[in-house]
């Protein structure tokens, strides 16, 4: 993915969710994970090459009976609720799989999203359970499971969608003003469809985007559908609605991506065992049943693989 746009207008606001999982900035941070881990542990360099024999973490976890899960608080993917309980789609799926692998206890370790990869390599936890988007940069530092969901883009618009905005091409043709998040991939998707950079404003989160919509500063806010569904649950912006989720295209090429679970490089025995259970859940429909209460529907299920996404 291209780097974040630098000449868009930035509307400063405290973000409620930190760095987003598909954020281009987060992808760059993951690429530098080895250096970041070194800084965190007081070493000049950390070897992230991992085990060469498939690793022994699965056996270790079975003996201990507990797996530590690195999470970043961002509903609906993973969070700690007001009762102090671990919740979200990713923990629900991961718990089911780890139980079937003989591990019954789960210890959440909350960190900022940008610290997930360094924390994995400094052994703060055993697996990243945060719906992290899989891309080439992150695959240099993390061994990913296959994705358990495929995200879609959508637009926040005023109710009734008076400008009839359903694609980035619509924004370009209508010379409409678009909002998006700081560093979001949607900025590049829009520019790739002919939207002028000067017509794009960036905001700290979807809530700020909805406020801009209601104030008439933008005509649509672009982002991932799942985070928008969550933002709309607050009910604080009744004049705003969401368009139908879609897979964006640039120059006629679909921009598909998905999120999965991250393991330390070399722990292929654990990753492969995890993937086998995940595939069973996909085929039986159990994955969708577990994910549905968190806003995931059939259109978010995917046949993508980590191997495919690691090439992007």
Automatic annotation (TrEMBL):
Signal peptide: 1-39
Gene: ehuB
Any single Pfam family the record assigns to this protein: SBP_bac_3
Molecular-function GO terms, alphabetical: ectoine binding
Gene3D superfamilies: Periplasmic binding protein-like II
Name listed for the protein in its UniProt record: Ectoine/hydroxyectoine ABC transporter substrate-binding protein EhuB
PROSITE patterns recorded: TAT
Ranges in coiled-coil conformation: none
Domain Solute-binding protein family 3/N-terminal, residue spans: 66-298
Annotated organism of origin: Streptomyces inhibens
Record's keyword terms, sorted: Signal
The keyword Signal is annotated on this UniProt entry: yes
InterPro entries: Ectoine_EhuB (IPR014337), Solute-binding_3/MltF_N (IPR001638), TAT_signal (IPR006311)
Annotated region described as Disordered, given as residue ranges: 240-262
GO annotation, biological process: ectoine transmembrane transport
């Amino acid at each position: 993915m291209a780097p974040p746009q630098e000449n868009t207008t930035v509307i400063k606001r405290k973000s409620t969710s930190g760095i987003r999982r598909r954020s281009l900035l987060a992808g760059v941070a993951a690429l530098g994970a080895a250096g970041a881990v070194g800084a965190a542990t007081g070493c000049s360099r950390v070897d992230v090459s991992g085990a060469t024999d498939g690793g022994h973490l699965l056996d270790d976890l079975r003996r201990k009976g507990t797996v530590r899960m690195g999470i970043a608080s961002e509903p609906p993917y993973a969070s700690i609720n007001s009762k102090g309980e671990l919740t979200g789609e990713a923990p629900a799926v991961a718990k089911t799989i780890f139980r079937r692998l003989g591990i019954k206890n789960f210890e959440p370790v909350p960190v900022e999203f940008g610290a997930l990869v360094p924390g994995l390599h400094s052994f703060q936890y055993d697996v990243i359970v945060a719906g992290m988007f899989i891309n080439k940069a992150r695959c240099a530092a993390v061994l990913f499971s296959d994705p358990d969901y495929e995200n879609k883009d959508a637009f926040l618009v005023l109710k009734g969608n008076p400008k009839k905005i359903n694609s980035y091409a619509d924004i370009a043709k209508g010379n409409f003003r678009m909002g998006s998040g700081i560093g979001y991939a949607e900025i590049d998707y829009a520019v790739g469809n002919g939207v002028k950079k000067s017509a794009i404003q960036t905001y700290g989160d979807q809530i700020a985007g909805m406020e801009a919509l209601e104030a008439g500063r933008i005509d649509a806010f672009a982002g991932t559908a799942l985070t928008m569904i969550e933002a709309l649950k607050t009910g604080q912006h009744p004049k705003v609605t969401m368009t139908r989720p879609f897979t964006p295209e640039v120059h006629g090429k679909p921009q598909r991506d998905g999120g999965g679970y991250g393991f330390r490089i070399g722990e292929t025995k654990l990753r492969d065992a995890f993937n086998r259970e995940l595939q069973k859940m996909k085929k039986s429909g159990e994955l969708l049943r577990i994910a549905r209460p968190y806003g995931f529907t059939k259109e978010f299920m995917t046949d993508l693989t980590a191997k495919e996404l690691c090439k992007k």
